[in-house]
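example protein:
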Amino acid sequence: MRSRHAVHVQRIVVAGAPQAARALLLLALLLLTLPTLLNAPAIDVDSQWETGMQMAAHQHMQWGPQVIWTYGPLGYLQYPMLVYSSEWRITVVVLALVSLAFVGSIGLFLWTHRAHLLWLLAVVAIFGLARGITSGLEVKLAVCMVVLSALAVQDRLPSRLSLACACLAGLSFALGCMVRGTELLVAEVSVPCVCAALLLGRRRLAATLFAGSFVIGGVAMWLAAGQSVANIPSYLRGAWEISSGYSSLATSAPSAGNLAISVLALVPIAVIGVVSLHRRALPLCVLMVPCAAWAVVTYKEGIVDGDPHRLIDAVTLMALLIMVAIVGATRFPSLVSTVACGGVAFVWLFLSPSVALGTADWNTAPPGDGSPGAVVSAYHRYAALFFSAADRTHLILQEKQSVRQEAGLSPGTVAAMRAGTNLFTPIDVGRAWAYDVAWVAGPVLQSYGAYTPWLQEADAATLQGSSRPDHVVMTVDWILDSWPQFEDAAALRALLANYHLSAVTLSQSHPGVLLFDRGAPALPPAGCTHTLPDAALNTTIPLPTVPVSSYLTINLHQTLAGRVRTTLVRGGGVEMSVQVDGRGWTAPHQLETASATSGLFVGGLINDAPQLDDLLTGRGRAVIT
């Protein structure tokens, strides 16, 4: 006959076994999604703007007036690079805190919904399979933003824990707004909804703490990043322009995978959203709003680019949908069909070859090959670097030397650049760090991102006036070879009107870069200005007699319905031919089409080396800007 004590011990052991399994699975989730903390700068597109964000943060450049990009003043946290010791150590600490909050919020979310152990196993498996992307800051931060908000709204937590979740949710949204424009746009929709849900649930203190931590925490982070409060409106405008705009030529083929994910995801989002509103399930409503926002972002990226780098938001959407599936399965068992719709999206994400999930994002993936040995070895090295200033300085010098060898600039060019301030266009902003030269942002970090009229004007303004940089460094290879279409037309016009080719560049038979000095313009000033009547597309526009070097500006009038269409679908190409002195038409000249909230924008491009030669020698008849 067993004693009561024996029965009590047996119950503790039986109940403790699932808890131990949950703890082990959460630990596995933490270890599986440990990110790389040391990426080496290089001469490639992504590495250059990532280095540029590090430089801007280190120099406390002002986001909005001086820097505009898809990421904010803390965007460098997403891509750990040892460019500067202080920024790298901050990145390590923030990633550690966000990783712990990520795992803790998921564990608490599953516990409050009394989800079966298999749900946690599914979460670990999905995040583990996608750890090339889920290891990065963005996905983890998005999960914290949404899950902590849902925890703050529901009534299953003790009061103090619920208030703590509200504070952490507000801080998560604030950090997201400082990191990337996408999170900023999602926060603009989600934060008011979370506040409304808390007020509807008669949780005024939680609503106050959530809104207060979001506003006060956001301002504190903004000031800590060396930013001025007066520049917040400019930052919001720049983030909106570059996030909502779209350039037909700064993209590749549409991603069928991303399009399918977003469309399939909208089905369960819509159905569960309607049901949650009908049943007044506030936590589920809070989950649905950011899910819908990320579905729209995933759709937009699907029509923009098929690059696996764009998978970040698709995987974020899938991470949030699995939380929705957990709530739907635990609170509304009748919604099996809706949860199954979410499963269809998951299957597409992991099985569709067009998504190519196996192609990990190199700068968010786990260290090495992701094996336990590689992770342990890498983190042992990270720990040594974190506490050794000498080791960090030595590695930074090695990385600079590596970039210099790859860039191969002549001593004369480097000496000229070090004699003043420099703006690098269109891509290689990271060379300013490698060669220790004074740097001025575009303000768009890489000029191909200036695909709206407002952004073009901002870039052009940087090259005008008495405070313009002393030199403009233009990389020849990018213009004549890889991406000739990435041309900032307004800035190019301002460059030719306020700068001329440096004697250093003219003295070299094969210069690695074109170095422009401020002073006499490369082209003569405009002699006259003509305004022509409106004309429809596919018609001939007669021009008056103009000087040899001319600029032609086209204003396209677009209806509100047209603006909506160009926001939701890919724009078509536009070409133009010019007839000079009645001697026949030139070959069709490719124009850049880009959509923005202000309408459709068309800009000119340099298509080949002869056109560039014509432009620099004053014979640019066929070049349209």
